[in-house]
Amino acid sequence: ERVVVPDIRACDFLAGTAGLAAYVQAGIHAAQSTPLFSRGGSLLGMISTHWREPHEPAERDLQLLDVLARQAADLIERRHAEAERAALLVREREARTEAETLVQVGQALSGELELEALIQAATDAATQLSGAQFGAFFYNVVNQQGESYMLYTLSGVPRAAFAGYPMPRNTSLFGVTFRGEGIVRIDDVRADPRFGRNAPYFGLPPGHLPVVSFLAVPVISRSGEVLGGLFFGHAEPGMFTERAERLVTGIAAQAAIAIDNARLFEQAQQALHARDAFLAAAAHDLKSPLTTVKGLSQLLRRRVSGSGELDTARLLSGLATIDAGVTTVAAQIDELQDVARLQLGQPLSLQRQPTDLVLLARQAAATHRLPAGHHRIQVEAAEAALVGQWDPVRLKRVLDNLLGNAVKYSPDGGAITVTVTREADAAGDRAMLAVRDQGLGIPAADLPRVFERFHRGTNVSSQIAGSGIGLTSARWIVQQHGGSIAVESREGAGSTFTVRLPLEPPNDGTPDAREPAG
Ligand code: ADP
Questions:
Q1: Is the pTM of this model over 0.85?
Q2: Whose CA is nearest to atom 23 of ligand 1?
Q3: Cα–Cα distance, 125 to 111 (Å, whole number)
Q4: N or C: which end of the chain has fewer CB within 10 A?
């Protein structure tokens, strides 16, 4: 409410206060204060008037003050509203440019399928938009040997300025980003307890770019994998605003999607290449028995049409060879058909019948022993026969694949052992079949992927022909029987493939077909 003090020196509530002393010093004897209220009733300020003599303001003066107070309050309120509107407008404009910038960056990134160019574009955009002096994108890559290492792109500084620095390690500050734990924004790293704790540099390596303001954002793929991190620096403190953080976070999200896409694109390219290689290998496999068949049939015809005579034994042997060739081709076409089914995810229609795995193994070993020559193929079985309800043609194909690989990938020969044993399992008895060789083995990085369609080991892919489909189809056949297949191998020391098959089909009513994988 309004306060009127006609004589300051006689005023009770001012007696002895610093206010009184100030008034006296300024030569003021009387004062009044009229509050300014907004229309909504909140206090905006006051109008005070002072007199050099004791003074009792007239009623008319006070009424005039009320009018002035009302006008002043309205004016202030209007200014407040205008300022608020202007600030809103600025914020709205900022938000719009942010959104537009992110859309532009997103478009640029999504159009880029080449990983390095994409990462460079993301680093440049984020460095520029955050106001950083320099930015870096550190990202993990896995080489053909399966080792993970880190690459980086830079923006704002020449690469030479960075060369020779150690890669950031999982020290407490960088670790937050590389573990994908969250965003780090620091106004002054020199004052941050997380910074400079780790040997050998306790802070920045000597000669490091001067970082005072620091911003780091993890780049995380759809699957949750941390792909890398975006890091920004500035030599001045407090350079990275909340807005910079928002923009960089937006770019990190888009970069993650673009990197995922670039990877998928590369995988698709590889798959296409692998499929072409498969088609070429399949055509080649079909052709060689056909060439034999054609050659033999032409020879027989020439003999018959030439002299009109051909001894029966020769004719029969020729026909037998032709028959065998045609059978091979037919089996290969069956296999192709199965592979096509597998690609389409259609289950095989298994022709289950009592099948002796020991016998199948001995037959397969005999076929592969012939061309192998310098390989010693042995079959070890504790029982004379091990009979299960299986599809013999499909199981023979699994055996042919495993034995064929054992021979093919042991170019220096060596012992190949096929073991057949019975195992007791909670769900009933099952057969265990192992094919062990002493050949090239499989690199650790390829091991988890050898059953994938078209995947071939890096140690063999350029030297030994193959299509990368054999193990995929073997696994599928085994899985359709309700069984499993596994591999153990060490590069240079040989491989062991182990198949486990229930003797009886699962009787829980569910089809024994499982999703083909890979
Ligand atoms: P392919 O032999 O036609 O390439 P597979 O699907 O049969 O296709 O095998 C996939 C890959 O697994 C092979 O390319 C090879 O790298 C690896 N592999 C399979 N069997 C063996 C083995 N016995 N020894 C070494 N590597 C093997």
A1: no
A2: 406
A3: 15
A4: N
